Amino acid sequence: MKNIKILSLVFLIASLASCKKWVDYNPHEDFVITELDYLKSESDYRTMAISVYTPIQWLNQAVPIGDIASDNSVSGGENASDVLPLQQIDDYTLTPVNDQLTEMWQAAYEGINRANYLHQYKAANKAGETVNFTGKDALYGEVYFLRAYYYFHLVRFFGDVPLFTDKRLGLSESKTLKRSAKADVYKQIEADLNSAIAVLPITNVEKGRVTKYAAQALLGKVLLYQNKFDAAATMLENVVNGPFSLVPDFGGMFLQSGENGPESVFEIQYSNASPYYNWGGVTRGQGNLSVQQCGVRGLNGKAGMPYAAGWSTNLPTVNLANAFTAGDIRKAATVLNIDDYINSNPALFTGVASNNPAFANNPAYQVAPYKNTGWYNQKYLPRKSETSGQVELNYLNNFRTIRYAEVLLMAAEAFNRSTTPNDTKAQLYLNRVRRRAFAVNDASKDITATGTALRQAIWDERRLELAMEGDRFFDLVRTGQAAAKITGFAVGKHELFPIPQYEIEVSGLTQNPGY
Questions:
Q1: C-beta neighbour count of 132 within 10 angstroms
Q2: C-beta neighbour count of 237 within 10 angstroms
Q3: Distance between CA atoms of 386 and 264, rounded to whole angstroms?
Q4: Under a CB-based contact definition with an 8 Å cutoff, are residues 180 and 168 in contact?
Q5: Fewer CB within a 10 Å sphere, N or C end of the chain?
Q6: What average pLDDT does the chain have?
Q7: Could you tell me the CA-to-CA distances from 102 to 95, 98, 492 in Å, in that order?
């Protein structure tokens, strides 16, 4: 009996020693940096907040998809086997196995996870320490705006999506999530944007950082998508009366010199500051890949030519080019007829050797793209000296994500569709955009229609003003025009894109109807 007690005591001591080893275990013994090291200072919080911005750059394919899926552009590319994910979207043969849609999903949830990590440790870091500093609330306003932006992106593309806000999720936890109703996702988006509006400053010294006006504009857009027109009109009026203005030079707004200008409410920033070479992550560099995609395939001109060659994707349609009426300065700034450009600038091309004789009209200067329309995306056409490193991956062109002109058009629509319509104000805001478009200061180009005719005029103006900026498909869907405007569009199916197959298999999510 005595020996058994002694042996039991020995095992107990050994067990306690073993437990103590694990209780006192310091992960620094195996890792240089751990989660316990994060968010110890103001600098940590600000650095982590910047990381929440990063995935918004990775959503660069959302812009071409928003036009390719509509009547504004076609997929283009080199041949029938090029850019297959975009061709599926263009042809309405898309399936749940689509690399571009998978990236749209994963990048957005990466941004949400980063925002949730900061939200999780807002009051105290993982070690239980509270870090307070001047401007912390405003910093969290940026975080909540970004989370709202990511969820708005997801709900527009996919409808009902997994919704989580309390913390950063790991892989095993993500498998437990189910899709939340679109109405619940929108409710969270509104809550995040209202939280942001309450604490954000009206200006920010650092360009590209979120402001109160950006949050109000995005909330107005979110409300418009839900047909909450009264609330949208009230919210957007804040931005209409803000410090923004329509720049006279429409085309110059999309040049490097026009970035973050007086018409910019929110821009997604891109850079060429550090050379980037990772072809394994083409959409996740510091530069805007969409710009390279838009370029003229095989363009070959003299040194004085401003344009660089590209991959001839996201080609504007003849339908879009013909939608502009005579005198509209936006046409030349939105779509480029490459043949006309070459013929109008012979000094840039005369004597240039032919490397690509495939193009029938101008064999020395370009290669005919697949689904050639004769038009290119002038707003985001690649220009020389605006890239670095692996040049295709590093174009610095910002996306003009929310412009003052769009705010005016959204406000016009909201007032026209309010419970008690205010068509006078709707006309005022619509015609401010049109007067800039036709470079007039009088009423010669004003719209005087009211009611449903005015509504259609506002929708038509959105197409012309925002062409090749990624909104067209979503505008056609939310306004019920998609089936009439888009070849191959099936009502009850194509309002949404398919949930990526990988997410169906890993997380057990249900698929959207028809896929």
A1: 7
A2: 18
A3: 20
A4: no
A5: N
A6: 91
A7: 11, 6, 22
Residues, the chain = 515
Burial label, 310 (beta-carbon count in 10 A; 0-12, 13-18, 19+): buried
Give the H or E element holding residue 315. strand 313-316
The answer to whether the beta carbons of residues 483 and 456 sit under 8 Å apart is no
Give pLDDT < 70 ranges for the chain.
Answer: 1-34, 352-365
CA 454 distance to own-chain centroid: 29
Return the H-helix or E-strand segment holding 376: strand 375-377
Judge whether 411 and 429 are in contact, CB under 8 Å: yes
Contact 434, 461 (CB under 8 A): yes
Contact 286, 270 (CB under 8 A): yes
pLDDT in tens, 428-444: 999 999 999 999 999 99
- Indicate the burial class of 484 (C-beta count within 10 angstroms; 0-12, 13-18, 19 or more): exposed
pLDDT > 70 in the chain, percent? 90
Phi, psi of 291 (to 5 degrees): -65, -50
Distance CA 6, CA 2 (A): 6
Query: What is the 3 state secondary structure string of 108-139?
Result: HHHHHHHHHHHHHCCCCCCCCCCCCCCCHHHH
